[in-house]
Design goal:
The chain has one domain: MFS general substrate transporter like domains (Growth Hormone, Chain: A, Up-down Bundle), CATH 1.20.1250. The chain is built from 18 helices and 2 strands. The longest helix is centred in the last third of the chain and has 30 residues. The relative contact order is 0.19.
Length: about 400
């Protein structure tokens, strides 16, 4: 089976459509808001609320699984309505409305509720936004477009923790006072998607006009697409929540005010690599870059498991960021490569549902391993899953090699 890749890009990432850049900056602002909270949330839960690491894994896993389920329905709805911007805007707006819930929370249940609603917002926006990126981007630079959007998203993901670290110093480790600042970039994000993103005309749907998630429509998704689904599941199993990186840093002795440095360092590397990795995948094929990313994750997990001290933590976290940069923009590009234009929302929704459900299992397993056997076991098992995933992709390496002329 051969997954064909587009021809070498004839234009550079600087010439990507304006809406791709706008969506990138929308993601940047929401990530500043979200990571300002989430970079501190695991430690807040353990030290202030008094929860266990299993509960942290449960909250993170439920949050991501919730987002995955919402992505399915919003993706299907975006195909049916042809209104991807509207759904993305609703999703970003809902996440913005949850930000005050975090500083007001006093129990793990309240944090879980806030996280649950926030992830519903993420789920509503995710598939329509990714489908919108594919809709407005020429096929020859699709990898670059997803890479740039992911890179800008990730700039926000390290700017948020940097801001959190500064505010933790200014507010003398007062988590709740810091969390209130997340409202500002969230509001700016909603304004930008309303006024800065333009949506193309509706994609004409093939076949009947019924609700897209039915047997006939699913039959139009090719075996190549379902292979991508399998790869996404394997990747999710190999990668548990980044909350465990924060807990690893804390256990290694990193001061509370400096905890956000974990996300800053990881996302700085992530942002630097994401756009070049996407552009490279347009030229040499996505699976080669994905395979390199999994190799990086194996090394990252082994370092986090067996290299002691903060030096080992930051080396492992940096490698983890390199892995994310090499892979996370490519997976949606593969979905766009293999799905019909008028079923892109559905295709992204199914992909995120199945990979997100797997991430819930992986996060729960990571929390159980941490509580039962310690941090080293968590990362050692992660390395084993990553090695299995890399072996599977290496076996299927023949499915990318032929270039395809964009149609």
């Amino acid at each position: 089976m051969t997954i064909k890749q587009p021809e070498k890009a004839s234009i550079g990432w600087r010439n990507l459509p304006r809406s791709v850049w706008a969506l990138g900056f929308v993601s940047l602002l929401m990530d500043i808001s979200s990571e300002l909270i989430h970079s501190l949330l695991p430690v807040f839960l353990v030290t202030v609320i008094g929860t266990s690491t299993v509960t942290v894994g449960l909250i993170e896993g439920i949050g991501e699984a919730t987002a995955a389920i919402a992505k399915l329905f919003s993706g299907v709805l975006s195909d049916r309505l042809g209104r991807r911007k509207l759904l993305a805007g609703i999703g970003y707006g809902l996440s913005a409305l949850t930000k005050p819930m975090f500083p007001l929370a006093t129990t793990a249940g309240e944090v879980l509720t806030a996280r649950f609603i926030d992830r519903i917002g993420k789920g509503i926006r995710g598939a329509p936004r990714d489908a919108l990126v594919a809709d407005v981007t020429p096929e020859a630079v699709r990898g670059a477009a997803f890479g740039v959007r992911q890179a800008l998203d990730t700039v926000g993901a390290f700017a948020g923790p940097l801001l959190a670290m500064l505010l933790m110093v200014l507010y003398a480790n007062n988590f709740r006072a810091v969390f209130w600042w997340a409202l500002v970039p969230a509001a700016l994000c909603v304004l930008l998607i309303i006024f800065g993103v333009q949506e193309p005309g509706r994609v004409k749907r093939s076949g009947n006009r019924s609700w897209p998630i039915n047997k006939a429509e699913l039959a139009r998704l090719s075996p190549r697409y379902w292979l991508v689904i399998g790869i996404g599941i394997i990747f999710a199993l190999a990668r548990f929540s980044e909350a465990f990186l924060v807990l690893k840093a804390q256990s290694a002795g990193l001061a509370l005010a400096l905890i956000p440095l974990v996300y800053v360092w990881m996302n700085l590397i992530y942002a630097l690599i994401a756009a070049p990795a996407g552009t490279l995948s347009d030229r040499i094929g996505r699976p080669k870059v994905l395979l390199a990313g999994l190799g990086t994750l194996v090394i990252a997990d082994l370092v986090l498991a067996f290299v002691p001290g903060l030096a080992g933590v930051f080396l492992g976290v940096g490698l983890w960021g390199a892995y994310l940069g090499q892979t996370q923009g490519l997976l949606p590009a593969l979905v766009a490569d293999t799905a019909p234009d008028d079923l892109r929302g559905t295709a992204f929704g199914l992909f995120n549902l199945l990979s997100g459900g797997t991430l819930l299992i992986a996060s729960l397993l990571a929390g159980w391993l941490w509580d039962t056997y310690g941090p080293a076991a968590t990362f050692a098992v992660g390395a084993a899953f990553s090695a299995v995933a890399a072996t599977g992709i290496a076996v299927r390496m023949d499915w990318h090699t032929t270039a395809q002329t964009p149609t």
